[in-house]
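Appendix B. Extra example for self-study. Work through it before the problem class; the solution is given directly after the inputs so you can check yourself.
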Amino acid sequence: MRFLDSLRFRVASLFRRSAIDTEMEEELRSHIRHRAEDLERSGLSHDEAERRARIEFGGYQKYKEESREAVGVYFLETLAQDLRFALRVLRKSPGFAAVAVVTLALAIGANAVVFGVLNALILRPLNVPQAESLYAIERGPDKAVNHSYPDYLDLRDRNHSFESLAAYNVAPVGLDTGNNPSSAWILEVTGNYFDALGIQPYLGRFFHAADEHGANSAPYIVLTYAYWHTHFHDDRGVVLQAALGRPVKLLAFGSAAGLILGLLASQVLASIVYQATSRDPLVLAGAVLAMSLVGLLATWIPAQRALSIEPSILMREE
Amino acid sequence: MADHAQILPGTLDLLILRAVSLGPLHGYGILLRIGQISGNALLIEQGALYPGLFRLVRQGLLKTSWGTSENNRRAKFYELTAAGRKRLREETANWNRLVAAIGAALAAQPEEI
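Solution. Structure tokens for the complete assembly:
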């Protein structure tokens, strides 16, 4: 506050400078006049008194300069002069300048990184509703935050203290989105994770505790907004593609398997049951087509709905 | 001139505050007042007063107003602010401690050690 005041004063002084200068001049002259009059009263001639008064005052310009500095009027001008001087000196010794610049750059960079981490971890509150009622459960004297999954289940099922208990695990994975496999860090989370945090997806829907039925029952992934933004360029279609990708593969595999099995079965049947011929290729092809259509619709419709109702970022894990 | 003492660095501010604490004064008046209350024992170059005055104003210890002097001339008058009064008290206490300590040190006799 004081600094701001002082800065405002200095900037204002820059514009009022001539007024301040005039006032200062007037004050110093007034001093000398007063002194001269006193000297005149003590018997000196007018001119002699003026002369003595000036001498006694000392270096007029020097004190005026010092007074200006004391007022802070010339702060910005002095600053500009100092800057020009500093630049000249730096240009004279480029080696030193380079070292200084690099040192500063490194220091600023390091500071920015530290601030970034601090900002994310401490200064910026968690972007979830009621972040203040979010707790981590620590275990034992060393305050470990890791728990075994059975422990988590026990804690969750006998929990009376919290609204809900969610767990997560950080893991590296390979993410293959079709053409550009890359590694990514994910959080493996329990089904109630998003409901426990009380947040809503930007696109699509989250999974819920009800989607979880034992091991490997809920192979869903949710992309973070940042990941979707940087890796998929905010493409809404990626969700549809992901939702359809695996079922289509399954469908193709299923159709092929069904075709072969059907042929084999009809062979077997034909050998056992008389006149039971279903080897007509047209019939088989029609059956496969019908199955494929139903299968496609079965995946297409929910995917479309997911996109339209709550436009979405939910993908089946590949 | 031999009986004039050169003032110590930093003590001019204290003298100004003290002079002004006795009533509002213009620059030349402050100089006269310092001479008067110090028994004319201190040597101050007159111009040196002003950088000090402006510094004190900037620190908010003095406030100014233009008025008319006893010589019927326009002059800028200085007067203590509340902060200035407080600073004067503190600086006076500091000064007294310093003087006591230096005095004691200079007066110390061999048998006291």
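Self-check: Strands of chain B lie at 5-6, 25-26, 42-43, 62-68, 74-80. If your reasoning did not lead you there, revisit section 3.
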